[in-house]
Amino acid sequence: MTRRVLVLNAGSSSLKYRLLDGGTGVAEASGTVERIGEDTGTLTHSVGGQDHTEERRVTDFEDALRSALDAFERHGPAIDRDHLAAVGHRVVHGGDLFADPVVVDDHLLATVEDLVPLAPLHNPANLEGLRVARRLFPDVPQVAVFDTAFHQSMPEHAYTYAVPLAWREEHRIRRYGFHGTSYAFVSRRAAELLDRPVEETNLVVLHLGNGASAAAIRGGHSVDTSMGLTPLEGLVMGTRSGDLDPAIHGHLHREVGWSLDEIDRALYRESGLRGLSGVNDFRELTRRMGAGDETARLAFDVYAYRVRKYVGAYYAALGELHAVVFTGGVGQHSPDLRAAALAGLDRLGIVLDPARNDARTNEARAVSAEDSEVAVLVVPTDEEWEIARQALAVVHGSD
Ligand code: ADP
Predict the structure, then answer these.
(1) Which of 60, 96, 147, 243 does the annotation list as catalytic?
(2) Which end of the chain is more exposed for a tag (fewer CB within 10 A), N or C?
């Protein structure tokens, strides 16, 4: 039975792809098509440790996927369509309709379309990816894997905002959460590292990438998460504010005269680390901080303090905690951030081992002290493998 899966992640102007073995996670090739629809686009196809990059105009998603398939033909490996088990698609918003991955059909497309108002930036691109892939691979099952699905297990008291009933019933205003495929992958790997059944493992997972969120996970199921209706709420991110007083929108609109779109844009693209320090890249931020830049220092402190508050909140939500888990580019690679976020939490049973925390490796590992009651883990995430795994499970009818 073939286990090869092509995973597609269609963004607003980019397409990321990876061909992999859904059983082992081994990637045979991967690539990115960027600046779709602009005058010059870029395609980078990586295979066997080599990057093949070319610049050309890419008109739309169909052109992008055709260009990717062309790169497979020229640089390998050949995609044998008859032996592709599935195409797995990342779909950002599944609302409260999908707790599991789904095989794509016309009805599914209409449903994802209906959810566009909840994710106007992401779902239209994801939809386009689904439509194009169906046209180009008519005989291969297409599976939609939703970022929100993992959090459908949240209890009502955690996902409900304290707003009027009509908002909640008529406009679907509630917390949905994102980064679900990452949490699914990381929580399983963390339980393996702890040598505990995932069903008996309580975790606070911190996914700190360009976007960032935290989740409280009990027995492999999300019980709370920091992103809400949209991926704006919660932690400080590269360019997004995370939590703020909801009255700020109205205040700026009335007092300064900015439109809601202008304010939204600033909160999504010009806030977070960028708003605080001018840079959204964490590596550059830490470099500047090392050189004595005070605004970079403040940005780091605000970021770390927000992470710390969520660790405390989710520890309380869970009652009992086995591990705090860091993942995403920042979580995996910044010992300084991990140390700042968890400093002085000994009384909560959380104690880092400085040497382990500082060690540079890409392996999943414990970075806590031997006698730390709560383990601290660093677990590299792999969302593509998780999407492939889930797509295979649906297609083969098993998990
Ligand atoms: P995405 O959310 O787009 O998948 P990543 O998970 O790759 O992004 O995270 C990107 C972030 O990780 C960037 O802010 C980047 O600076 C940060 N990062 C990557 N490597 C390091 C490092 N060695 N030290 C500190 N931060 C890093």
Answers:
(1) 147
(2) N
